[in-house]
Design goal:
single chain, alpha/beta, Rossmann fold, formyl-coa transferase, domain 3, 3-stranded antiparallel sheet, 18 helices, 11 strands, CoA transferase, CoA-Trfase_fam_III, CoA-Trfase_III_dom_1_sf, CoA-transferase_III_domain, CoA-transferase activity
């Protein structure tokens, strides 16, 4: 479980979601991620999440070591510059200009260390007229087009139950780092990755922009359906909901047969992709009328028998109990420092030769590894470190 990125050192300087999730991805793949936190409370993510116990930290901070450094004072800035000098990658998601204000901007860092890779995640990017604006994930989702198309047509824009703007940006940041590592292997050159929240969301908006450019079409909210793609919805059974995706012609014919209505497979109202799109609401009502007569288990068995893409609508309890999740270790149990054994999502994607995983739990204390890291990498002794702590530097 060493991971494909074993030997890579990453300095994570971000807070909340985008930067730390990028660090989590790299750590899961084997990188040594050193998280720099402000002395005292540390990353606000330590206290985020739903419920009385804030366990989300245990996922996003796994495979990381924590050091504290006060970046608002020159001594803390100098300390982190020394730490960065030992690293391959720096991750940050502060407001543009903040790193420069601290003497940690790319111009200075790359001048001192030309092979360094710096991943910068922000609301609007490092350039452009909006670059100095504050930006959170939800703002990127709105500007990137996501929020407008999510929800019911007769209601205001909705949101997902997770911070998809942040995690998309972190994923693009991680992808950029991996590409930059390949370039560095060939040339020895480092570089800056500029990942903007709104652009990361925009990238997954499929045909939204060219549809408008070519036809003047503006995508609208469509609730649980994707307009023109049918059938592909969640349908009501006797004892729950079930997702069926039979929007290809051959799949629709198989679904009609599974429903005991094979003649519908060739019905001109439904036989082609375009026809099903035009009659989407009518078709969904027809399928719903059928699924309501069956249990989820009964529909599931029919979908498997007829090789139709379909699946149960899971919550956490169903995920934990599912044998497929168990067989692939999609849900793992980690011995955490604060909560003991804790189930959480595993490390993805799967690697055949260099599997990733959770090598260490999230650090429970801010600066938990100060002595270990500052001593090991920078040669700072205990007395000097104690003096720095007393002065508010760490």
């Amino acid at each position: 479980m060493s991971g494909a990125l074993r030997g890579l050192r990453v300095i994570e300087m971000g807070q909340l979601l985008a930067g730390p999730f990028c660090g989590q991805l790299l750590g899961d793949m084997g990188a040594d991620v050193i998280k720099v936190e402000p002395p005292g409370a540390g990353d606000p993510m330590r206290d985020w999440g739903q419920g009385s116990e804030k366990v989300q930290w245990e996922v996003i901070a796994r495979n990381k070591r924590s050091v504290s450094a006060n970046l608002r004072v020159p001594e803390g800035q100098a300390l982190v510059r020394r730490l960065i000098a030992t690293a391959d990658v720096v991750i940050e998601n502060f407001k543009p200009g903040t790193m420069e204000k601290w003497g940690l901007g790319p111009d200075r860092l790359l001048a001192e260390q030309p092979s360094l890779i710096i991943a910068r995640m922000s609301g609007y990017g490092q350039t452009g007229p909006y670059s100095d604006r504050a930006g959170f994930g939800g703002i990127g989702e709105a500007m990137g087009g996501w929020r407008y198309i999510v929800g019911e047509p007769d209601r205001p824009p909705s949101r997902m139950g997770v911070s998809i703007g942040d995690t998309l940006t972190a994923t693009y940041g991680c992808m950029g780092i991996l590409a930059a590592l390949h370039h560095r292997t060939a040339t020895g050159e480092g570089q800056v990755i500029d990942a903007a929240l709104y652009e990361s969301v925009l990238q997954v908006m499929e045909g939204l922009v060219p549809e408008y450019d070519r036809m003047g079409l503006i995508r609208e909210r469509s609730g649980s359906i994707l307009t023109g793609i049918a059938p592909s919805n969640v349908y009501t059974c006797k004892d729950g909901e079930y997702m069926i995706g039979a929007n290809k012609d051959s799949l629709w014919k198989r679904l009609a047969t599974a429903m005991g209505l094979p003649e519908l497979g060739d019905d001109p109202r439904y036989a082609t992709h375009l026809a099903r799109g035009e009659n989407q609401l009518e078709l969904d009502e027809l399928i719903n009328a059928w699924t309501r007569t069956l249990t989820v288990d009964e529909v599931d068995a029919l979908m498997i028998a007829h090789s139709i893409p379909a699946g149960r609508v899971y919550r956490a309890p169903e995920m934990i109990a599912d044998p497929h999740f168990q067989a692939r270790e999609a849900i793992i149990e980690v011995e955490t420092e604060r909560y003991g054994p804790l189930k959480m999502q595993g490390a993805f994607p799967k690697f055949s030769a260099t599997p990733g995983g959770v090598r260490r739990p999230a650090p429970s204390q801010v600066g938990q590894h100060n002595a270990e890291i500052y001593g090991e990498l920078l040669g700072i002794g205990g007395d000097e470190l104690a003096a720095m702590a007393a002065a508010g530097v760490v």
